[in-house]
Amino acid sequence: MLGARAAGVGFALIVVAKAMTSVAGTTSSQPRGLHAAGAAAGRDGGSGSPRHRLHRLLAVPGHVPTRVNDVLLLRPDTDGQTESKAKEARNNRHVVFFHGDIQNFQEEMALQPEGAQWLSWSLEQVAFTLGRRFPDRYVWVVRASCMYLNKFSCYNNFVESNMFGAPEHSPYSPESGAFHHLRALLSHGMERANLPNPLQSQGGTDSIPSGFSLTLVGFSKGCVVLNQMVYELGGARADPQMSPFIKCISAMYWLDGGHPGGSETWVTDKQMLRELAASGVSIHAHVTPYEVCDPMRAWVGREHEHFIKTLEEFGACPSKKLHFEDEPPSIENHFRVLQEF
User: Positions of the region Disordered (predicted)?
Assistant: First the structure.
């Protein structure tokens, strides 16, 4: 989560907006479908270049058809067109990324004075960064369903949140929730992108394609989605229709998590963390002084420490790292964790 701390209202603001007085949604004006998106990020090259591998899928529905998210898809790097098709048929490994405040499509950030200075962290650029980090996987960048004042990311389709994106976590429901929305979003996205062996939006073991695996990455505000999944984990693992999907999650990365609520920036409930430790998911927590060393929000650092220690008590071995610990806290270093994790 970015910005100055507004003590009077208990929210964390990125930078006070002087000219913005209305809520701005994020749905693109482009028509629905699959669109090449790399040109906006200034990339070019051959058939395997990022420019030709990055596509934009607009208004992809989730478990509830009216709940949609725009998504960027970066296909894995392949050497040639024929080999590409063969590799795609065999490869079913995916990374899903949830972004933080102020991050948006590049052309939309460029229109906002506060966003323009952070264009190097646009959703397109982050997709390329993740593509280098995970070169053999499909990278999905999920855009928040709304951006209050063009900067506060709200993941209402995954977790109940206020207009600033502060979450209200809830347990697993067989009818709705973060796992249901993510599964359907990926299923519909894979179908729209014409990927081979797509995931089915619902069902048991037979609905999961061979070799399917999933890595989840949350950055800053985007970590609220991962936190909600931890709250749902016990119920999801007990549901025979959802359990096979849960077993495909190989790793979860929390990158400098933060949100404007006054607590639960990191999951601290011991029962929830017991379920996470027992799940076998590889757990990674990368932080910077910007979030965990802020004296105005000292609970964030305490919760992060509790998160790690409790998981270790339950037998998990979370990887952890404090980046840039010898440098002053800064928004730039907050973003740089996306390159360093």
Answer: 25-52
